[in-house]
Amino acid sequence: MQGFNVLFPFGFHATGEPILGVVERLKKGDHAQKQVLLREGISEQDIEKFKDPKYIVRFWQKRIENDANSLGLSVDWRRKFTTIDPVFNKFIEWQYNYLRKKGYVIQATHPVVWCPHCNSPTGDHDRLSGEGESPIEYIVIKFKMDDFVLPTATLRPETVFGVTNIWVRPDAEYVRAEVDGEVWVVSESAVEKLKDQLHSVKVKGKLKGSDLIGKYAKNPVTGNEVIVLPATFVDLNNATGIVMSVPAHAPYDWIALNDLKSSADASFKKYGIKIDIKPIKLIETPNFDGIPAEQACLQFSVNSQLDKEALEKATNEVYKKEFHLGVLNDLAGKYKGMQVSKCKKSLSSDFKSNGFASSIWELTGKVVCRCTTEAHVKILENQWFLKFSDPEWKNLARKCVDNMKFYPDDARKQFYEIIEWLEDKACARKSGLGTRLPWDNEWIVETLSDSVIYMAFYTISHFLNENNIEPHYLKDEVFDYVMLGMGNADKIASKGLNKDLLEKMRKEFDYWYGQDMRSSAKELIPNHFTFSIFHHVAVWPDEPKRWPKAYTINGMQQMNGQKMSKSKGNYITIKEAIEKYSSDAIRITLMDSTEGMDDPDWTEKSTLAWRDKLDHIFNLVKENYNKGIDKTTVMDEWLYSRLQNHISKLTQHLESIQNKSAVTVLHMILNDINWYLRRVDKPNKKITNYALEVLIKCLSPFTPFIAEEMWSQIGKKGFVSISEWPKADVSNEEIIKLEEFVKNLCDDLSQVIKLAGKKNKLYLYVASPKEFEHFSTAEEFLKKQFGFHSVSIHLSSQAVYDPEGKSKRAKFGKPGIYVE
RNA sequence: GCAGGAGUCGCCUAGCCUGGUCAAUGGCGCCAGCCUUAGGAGCUGGUUCCUUAGUGGAUUCGCAGGUUCAAAUCCUGCCUCCUGCACCA
Question: Are A347 and A335 contacting, i.e. CB atoms less than 8 angstroms apart?
């Protein structure tokens, strides 16, 4: 309507596991899955066809297309495609070959939460329990004994300088195993973990924890010999099942030692060892003047190692304080004087490179896979990653954000933040639908990674569709040419893709790309939205005009104050909603619900109210168009002026995606037209028609169907949706002001009448000739409105009849009022 | 826990960046009146409290403080809610 060519395409993302999941569940005869399809109106017979993933894609594609059309979206369907179309796969292959050439796709080794039964990573949503738990690295300090190593696992390697002893579970069975060429003693459960974490592990034999007690092991860092002691708190399922004891800084160790000293552990007596161990303090923290672990145990009333809850709290307290505020003391050798938070990393890697330490990955909490198997951490080798950690790449992404517009702009901060913390991201999986990595066929490009520059594909997809281009003609050089302007069309042209078509595609791409606006929900900010920025700047680093220009970000649609969810049943399909309320009513209700990133709430009540209101507008147009007379009054100019202001506001709101504010302006247009019709004796035909036409045009983006109907009813040719958008003209602010006075007068009058009762005569005393002139135009209106027999207006300075001296109250904009 | 956002007069929302013109925008709902002697339609007014011939005043913008002549708007702390936290779409 503003004269721009607009490309509004629509495609279908089918990549990933969900579709295959449906197929698999149907094949297994899953009842719930069948019910979902039945509720969608699919017949029992047709459900059979859903065992073919391609059919599922086609089915929903059709359904969604129909929905989009019913909603009145003006989509260019010639360009549609799905992400499992072979031609699209060629595009993704090009994208990834290209990114790899640039060094943005790398191979790396990475810990993941792993289900040994399913033989695959266990994502958050794939878990029976343990949502949010993630891999964490324990440093394994290798304490040496005569013929084997005691690998103690710790999250606080810096405390190795204060180790006084080692803990094992006396009642437990441990195994002796050859790990990376050394003999380790570890818990049985550690064996599988180590195997999955790139260690070579060969089990040699077993031994009881009690066999180790009383023996000495050498601290590889300090060279001190420390004794092995029994403790019940040691968790065999955690890490190696062997723990180093730092009683000064670990409440668990401190209390366990205490338990032993007080001989609370009766079973210990049989070893006949004398405990003469003093905590060794190696971290100085302002909060703790004595032994930190002891202080924390007192503070949280820890009485024995059985007080798990209190111990957790105490441990947390010490860990946090010491991590942030603690400084290592003289005992820490070269790390003396360093803050714990600062030296932790370098200290760990030093220990590893010196051969003092290794590591084992654990989960931050128990995770159970949907298949009911307990998961552990596996280090996956040679996975393909997008190198989002690359500082140059991050810089380009920041530059893109600098130049973008965000609606609302609050989101911008978040984008910078995400770019900051984003690390390398796995971009391929071994299962699901999608595009195979061209250089490594086992891997399929993961779903968030094939949906980031696909918008560029829209610029040429209709050519591919219309000409039935076979995928094998879409070599990388073709996309290099079309998307990047590289190479020579003569040379690239082939039997299946001639030069003419190549040039057309390049031209079309060049004309349309980059995208002016992308719109989606706020939960996509940390992934899709940001990834899309990264990919654009990577593919077109020297062409900022191809980068995303604006993002519109909305909240999550709520329904009647609640999140829509299938399980709760509080959802409605687009099809159902349109049938029940009409497309227009739904559209304008959604536009009216909220703007910005808050969650908009859709209610049936407001939809019905809007439906009635649209009916009313329809009648208003029908009853008033072409009905006025030719005589003009000052009110014509008033209405014209008001409309100019509304047009300019409405346009501004729409341009900055403030839809709710825009709807508010619609209300105002409507109110003003109503006021005008009431205020004037006979409406002027020209201005009334103009106002109604403006109303229809302004309504058109919100409610296209009824707008087109009204447009045709008033005898216009063609579509209102492609008619010219009204342009705001100059407005007469003085008249607007003066008429505002009349409205205020009406308010005052109704007050006065309420208090004084109904009267027959009205006297007004106005302060200026301008007002006198304008109020005079309202005489008939005031009579009609309030039932006065006579209305007389005087300049306050020339009041001829003024029994209560009301003329003195006259102010500019506020006449003195006397009724009798 | 970390990061970002939000809490406004029955409900939903505007305003907050750039303090005063804010008892605070618009809609919905509700109440009264009008019209129509069919209306769930439409129109007009009201919708924190007190007071009043159109006025004046009191108390309000999550809670508690602070800055200022002046705060919904700025600052501090707290509470509550939303979103995301990665191999998942």
Answer: yes
**3-class DSSP state for residue A801?**
coil
**Rounded-to-integer distance, Cα A627 and Cα A373, Å:** 77
Q: What's the CA angle centered on A461, arms A456 and A462, to 5 degrees? A: 135
Q: Which nucleotide is nearest to A18 (CA to C1')?
A: B89
Minimum-distance residue to B25 (CA–C1'): A664
Q: What is the mean pLDDT of residues A562-586?
A: 81
pLDDT of A265 above 70: no
Residue pair A412/A524 in contact (Cβ under 8 Å)? The answer is no
Nucleotide nearest to A592 (CA to C1'): B27
Å separating the CA of residue A636 from the C1' of nucleotide B8: 37
- Specify whether the CB–CB gap between A764 and A777 falls below 8 A: no
Both tokens assigned to A28: 């297994």
Task: Decide: A653 and A668 in contact? Cβ < 8 Å.
Answer: no
What value of ipTM does the predicted structure carry?
A: 0.90
The rounded distance, in Å, linking the Cα atoms of A63 and A77 is 14
C-beta of residue A702 within 8 angstroms of C-beta of residue A666: yes
Q: Which two tokens stand for residue A197?
A: 């974490």
Query: Where are any strands of DSSP class E within A42-101?
Result: none
**Å between CA of A145 and C1' of B1:** 39
d(CA A797, CA A807): 8
Q: How many whole angstroms separate alpha carbon A177 and alpha carbon A148?
A: 9
* pLDDT single digits (tens) A322-379: 887 788 888 888 888 888 878 888 888 899 999 999 989 988 888 888 778 888 899 8
Rounded CA–C1' distance between A799 and B53, in angstroms: 19
Is residue A90 very low, low, confident or very high in pLDDT (cuts 50, 70, 90)?
very high
Is A326 in a helix, a strand, or coil? coil
Give A142-170 as a DSSP string. EEE-SSSEEEEEES-GGGGGG--EEEE-T
**pLDDT > 90? residue A560:** no
Strands A127-129 and A425-426: unpaired
CA atoms of A53 and A75, how far apart (whole Å):
25
Cα gap A436→A185, rounded to integer Å: 43
Straight-line distance from CA A413 to C1' B74, in Å? 21
Whether residue A565 contacts residue A432, with contact meaning beta carbons closer than 8 Å, is answered with no
Which letter does DSSP use for residue A77 in this model?
G
Do the Cβ atoms of A242 and A176 come closer than 8 Å? Answer: no
Q: Which two tokens stand for residue A243?
A: 């723990």
Report pTM. 0.85
- The reported pLDDT for the residue numbered A567 is 65
Q: Average pLDDT in the A226-240 region? A: 89
| Choice among A47-56, A248-257, A601-610 with the minimum mean pLDDT | A601-610
* Short-list A433, A418, A428, CA closest to A449: A428
- Residue A8 has φ and ψ, to the nearest 5°, of -125, 90
Read off the pLDDT of residues A431-461 as tens digits, 9 standing for 90 and up.
Answer: 889 999 999 998 999 999 999 999 999 999 9
Contact A213, A376 (CB under 8 A): no
Mean of the per-residue pLDDT values of chain A: 89
Distance CA A318, CA A325 (A): 10
